[in-house]
Automatic annotation (TrEMBL):
<dbReference type="InterPro" id="IPR011650">
    <property type="entry name" value="Peptidase_M20_dimer"/>
</dbReference>
<feature type="signal peptide">
    <location>
        <begin position="1"/>
        <end position="19"/>
    </location>
</feature>
<dbReference type="InterPro" id="IPR017439">
    <property type="entry name" value="Amidohydrolase"/>
</dbReference>
<dbReference type="Pfam" id="PF01546">
    <property type="entry name" value="Peptidase_M20"/>
</dbReference>
<dbReference type="Pfam" id="PF07687">
    <property type="entry name" value="M20_dimer"/>
</dbReference>
<dbReference type="InterPro" id="IPR036264">
    <property type="entry name" value="Bact_exopeptidase_dim_dom"/>
</dbReference>
<keyword id="KW-0378">Hydrolase</keyword>
<dbReference type="InterPro" id="IPR017145">
    <property type="entry name" value="Aminobenzoyl-glu_utiliz_pB"/>
</dbReference>
<protein>
    <submittedName>
        <fullName>Amidohydrolase</fullName>
    </submittedName>
</protein>
<dbReference type="InterPro" id="IPR002933">
    <property type="entry name" value="Peptidase_M20"/>
</dbReference>
<dbReference type="InterPro" id="IPR052030">
    <property type="entry name" value="Peptidase_M20/M20A_hydrolases"/>
</dbReference>
<feature type="domain" description="Peptidase M20 dimerisation">
    <location>
        <begin position="206"/>
        <end position="298"/>
    </location>
</feature>
<keyword id="KW-0732">Signal</keyword>
Length: 482
């Protein structure tokens, strides 16, 4: 009896010490809070050096240096892409992958101010927040690595540095190379004007250039000798626009003439139009793309020109995984949204006055967590191909002022200041906590893989790009694609 009382007394004495020991969750959150300034500086450095797809040498280097400093083993130049990388921290156990993006957009140069202020005329800008995207992923991976070390846990973290999401589809080449084999689950996120962790579908897409070759001549003196490549482009566009009436309602077809000739009095012997074709069903995309090619061939026949088709991207839609998404939603709800201080509130109010929209959401949306749901958005991402080979989950956080559209100067402005950084750290915490849950709960991974197999339904993934090499010239030569 006396021995039992002593044991009980000893246990009572030790209980306060156990209570004071930080939980797994609080360890990760405190770690990221302590490193907010460090990762905000990294995000700002990438923001100040906006680089287009396949040209992200400075941006990828910033992230790679952070990962090397943290103890990750880094491989670069994978799948034929100089700015790609995989950073691995291998302690055995389940393998959790993270996707990092870091490419910018052309023509969106903007200062981090709530009014239009171009930094470089015609320059690039992070209008989709990939400076935050890549940095948050690195932050979450580093925090998870330090949690693994502190608790002597068996797990492996892989961070995939994926170039050229904004056209070029770098992830597809990494998938085709088999670089995701052996990964149990993949986590990613995207900047947004709200906080949501939903299971989502999106559109598959085919993208490419149609290059027409004709015969130059004097447009007034000897027009009969000319064969206009621009006429061929316009004929193709007319036929595709008529085709719109006879495609599924969920389709999206858009184009831009990237080269239409050099002078009105010279019959252009070279013209180029870029097309993107989208639909939620990848089979429908393949069919529409073939119809667009037929329109191009018909235009070439009708104008006595020649056409060459250059595919630059082909990506699948997202395969949702509700097992993972519900776990991520739980963690996002724990972390909470973005709280503005007075200066950020004034910035946000001024930004909202520049929106060309009759409906502007309240600023309070930035701190709200949207209800969980299975949804669809009509845009596309090369994360889709990853989701067809490994269970994948993502979220969005309020890095932009509520009501901001992606690919705008308003998004660029917020991406370079504290509103963007706060949303970035919400994402980093949520991703790290989700990674922690997957590592500690093998049944969660098992259930995610079961759902993955069921949704796949026996479909064999085949990349839409075939055996083509990465279009490393995509952004470098986009106005000189001859």
């Amino acid at each position: 009896m006396k021995k039992s009382l002593l044991s009980l007394f000893g246990l009572i004495c030790w209980l306060p010490l156990f209570a004071q020991e930080p939980s797994h969750e609080s360890f990760i959150i405190k770690n990221l809070d302590a490193n907010t300034e460090r990762f905000s500086k990294a995000a700002r450095e990438i923001w100040e050096n906006p680089e287009l797809g396949y040209l992200e040498y400075t941006s990828s280097k910033v992230l790679i240096e952070e990962l090397k400093t943290a103890g990750f083993n880094v491989e670069t130049g994978l799948a034929g892409m100089p700015t790609s990388f995989i950073a691995t921290y291998d302690k055995g156990g389940p393998v959790i992958g993270f996707l990092a993006e870091y490419d910018a957009l052309p023509g969106l140069s903007q200062d981090a101010v709530p009014y239009r202020s171009i930094l470089v005329e015609g320059g690039n800008g992070h209008g989709c927040g990939h400076n935050l995207f890549g940095t948050a992923v690195v932050a979450s991976g580093v925090a998870l690595k330090e949690w693994i070390d502190a608790n002597n846990i068996q797990a492996t973290i892989k961070i995939f540095g994926t170039p050229a999401e904004e056209g070029g589809a770098g992830k597809v080449y990494m998938v085709r190379e088999g670089l995701f084999e052996g990964v149990d689950a993949v986590i990613n996120w995207h900047p947004s004007d709200r906080n949501a962790a939903n299971a989502s579908t999106c559109t598959a897409v085919m993208q490419g250039y149609f290059k027409f070759y004709g015969q130059t001549s004097h447009a007034a003196g000897s027009p009969e000798r000319g064969r206009s490549a621009l006429d061929a482009v316009e004929a193709m566009n007319m036929m595709v626009n008529m085709m719109r009436e006879h495609v599924d309602q969920g389709s999206r077809i858009h184009y831009v003439i990237t080269n239409g000739g050099l002078a009105a009095n010279v019959v252009p012997d070279y013209a180029v139009v870029e097309y993107m074709v989208r639909h939620p069903d990848v089979t429908e995309v393949k069919d529409m793309w073939q119809r667009v090619i037929k329109a191009a061939e018909g235009a070439a026949i009708g104008t006595d020109t020649k056409v060459e088709v250059e595919v630059v991207a082909g990506i699948y839609g997202l395969l949702p995984n509700e097992t993972l998404a519900k776990t991520m939603h739980k963690n996002l709800s724990t972390v909470g949204g973005v709280e503005y201080d007075q200066e950020e509130t004034e910035f946000a109010k001024q930004i909202q006055t520049t929106f060309n929209s009759p409906r502007v959401p309240p600023l309070s949306m930035a701190k709200e967590i949207q209800p969980y749901q299975l949804n669809h958005f009509p845009a596309s991402t090369d994360v889709g191909d990853v989701s067809y080979v490994v269970p994948t989950v993502g979220l969005g956080t309020a890095t932009w002022v509520p009501g901001t559209a992606a690919h705008t100067w308003q998004a660029v402005a917020a991406d370079g200041m504290t509103i963007g950084y706060k949303g970035m750290m919400v994402a980093a915490k949520t991703m790290a906590l989700t990674g922690k849950d997957l590592i500690l709960n093998p049944l969660l991974i098992k259930e995610a893989k079961k759902e993955f197999d069921e949704r796949l339904g026996g479909l064999k993934y085949e990349p839409l790009i075939g055996d083509m090499a990465p279009p490393l010239h995509f952004r470098k030569d986009q106005n000189k694609v001859k």
